[in-house]
Amino acid sequence: MRRPPPVPATGRERLIGVLVARLPFYYGWVILACVCAAGFSRQGPAVATLSIFVTPMCAEFGWSRTELSAAVSIGGILGALVAPFLGPVLDRSGARALLGFSVLATGLTLILLATTPSLAVFYLLYCIARMNFAAPYDLGIYGSNVTWFVRQRALVTSITTLAQMLGLVAMPLIAQAVIEASGWRSAWTAIGATVLVVGLLPIWLLHVRRPEDLGLRPDGAPAPVRGDGAPGSASATAEHAEPAYSRREALATPAFWLLALFTLLAYPVQAGISLHQAPFYIERGLPTGVAAAAVSVFAGFSAVSGLAFGFWPRRLSVRFALALVAVLLAASSLLMLAAGDRHGAYAASALFGCGIGGLLTMLPIAWAEFFGRLSFGAIRGIALTVQVSAQAAGPMVSALLRDATGSYDASLATFAAMSAAALAAALLARPPAPRLL
Predict the structure, then answer these.
(1) How far lies 142's CA from each of 99, 159, 220, 373, 376, in Å?
(2) Residue 414 CB partners (closer than 8 Å, separation 6+)
(3) Phi, psi angles (nearest 5°) of residue 418
(4) What is 22-220+238-428's CATH number, 3.40.50.1260, 1.10.8.60, 3.40.640.10, 1.20.1250.20?
């Protein structure tokens, strides 16, 4: 199987190489810090952040929730269209350009949302930000983790999830505070500025494509030794330590399609509930501050859960972790149906956060554990087409059922059923037979 071609070192990378020689720790941890900053900034156009804007923007413009939710769906569809083309770019060139472009474009478009005069302009700007959220951000963040870490992959992915959930805690609170102080237009400016300040410089200055480009191995492992006592090939040894499927080979396995089915069932629940959490609680008669706090409780428990899932035992198949995620999503959907006061809202959002934290941490690990890192971008690019399409469908399902029935009860019941089906898909998904270089 062909390895990614070598990339000539730039002046920036030569300087980083000098830095690496003096660091007392593995440079992958610097990469992880860059990825965490990008993951925090990613939450600017997250559906949980947008949920804070649903009520004030719909009130000012007279939009229905279906009209506003369509922006999430359109942006997701755009992400689904570009993801298969971006995956091979990630494998060839690394994540720096993908993440740098994503942060810059997302921050600028969110700032420009402050000038929104119409639904068409809102669609144009938010869909760009949402497309970046759905595809380039995801590929760059998880592609970096998979490339720089193998043995410690679950831990670093959980740390990345923690950083993203901290962003998801902060962004709705920033939005709500600024809306209460000076309106929703100022809130979009604040969110966009936060994205740029936190996310751009670390990625642009410090990110490197692969550990092999700096003469390193994944996880910072020492250079291998051949049988004759001479140093071996670092990249070859690292790649022999895990599966090495190409995209075509992965598509021929039942495991790929079962993971895709799990994704198709779980991600409408994630996006459909996330966007409509705050409006749902407000319709139940809870104050807007309680609704915003419930969203932050969800994000906080997502962070804790994501970190906890990072310690999932390696001897226990990742498919059982995905099954637990499905159970948590189903239970939280049903609990949300029964939530009638702030305590019920916080409990339902906390349980939902536990499921989402596990989903964000364990599903990327499942793709990497099943198929390896060599063609992760190409394989993940196809999988993202399913994921972001499912995310695009979730808000529309929720909004259409709400507008048709006058409440969110039907959508929550639908999401509980989809989560139960995802449980079956997870239990059926088994790693394919090892295919090593």
Answers:
(1) 11, 12, 18, 10, 9
(2) 397, 401
(3) -65, -35
(4) 1.20.1250.20
pLDDT of residue 241: 57
How large is the angle between the packed helices 254-283 and 318-338, nearest 10 degrees? 20
DSSP label at 213? G
Closest CA to 399 of 407, 390, 391: 407
The single residue listed with the structure tokens 């971006």 is 86
50-88 burial: b if 16+ Cβ within 10 Å, else e: bbbbbbbbeeeeebebbbbbbbbbbbbbbbbebbbebbe
Question: What is the DSSP annotation of 380-419?
Answer: HHHHHHHHHHHHHHHHHHHHHHHHHHSSSHHHHHHHHHHH
| pLDDT cut 90: percent of the chain above it | 43
What is the C-alpha separation between 380 and 137, in angstroms, rounded? 12
How is 186-205 classified by DSSP, letter by letter? HHHHHHHHHHHHHHHHHHHH
pTM above 0.90, yes or no: no
The owner of tokens 């350009």 is 97
Picking from 321, 81, 45, 54, the residue whose alpha carbon sits closest to that of residue 192 is: 45
Backbone angles phi, psi at 180, to 5 degrees: -65, -30
pLDDT tens track for 336-374: 888 878 888 899 999 999 999 899 889 989 998 899 888
What digits encode the pLDDT tens for the residues 369-410?
Answer: 899 888 888 999 999 889 888 877 888 888 888 888 888 889
Q: Which residue has the tokens 């009860």?
A: 409
| Residue type, position 78, single letter | L
Q: Which residues are CB-contacts of 115 (< 8 A; sequence separation ≥ 6)?
A: 121, 185
Among 91, 87, 94, 132, CA closest to 16 = 94
Would you state the structure tokens that stand for residue 380, as one six-digit string?
A: 């993940």
410-435 pLDDT tens trace: 989 999 999 999 999 999 998 887 76
Whole-number Å distance between alpha carbons of 287 and 390? 31
pLDDT of residue 210: 87
The one-letter amino acid at 276:
H
270 burial level (CB within 10 Å; 0-12, 13-18, 19+): buried
| Predicted pLDDT of residue 15 | 80
**Tokens standing for 383?**
């999988």
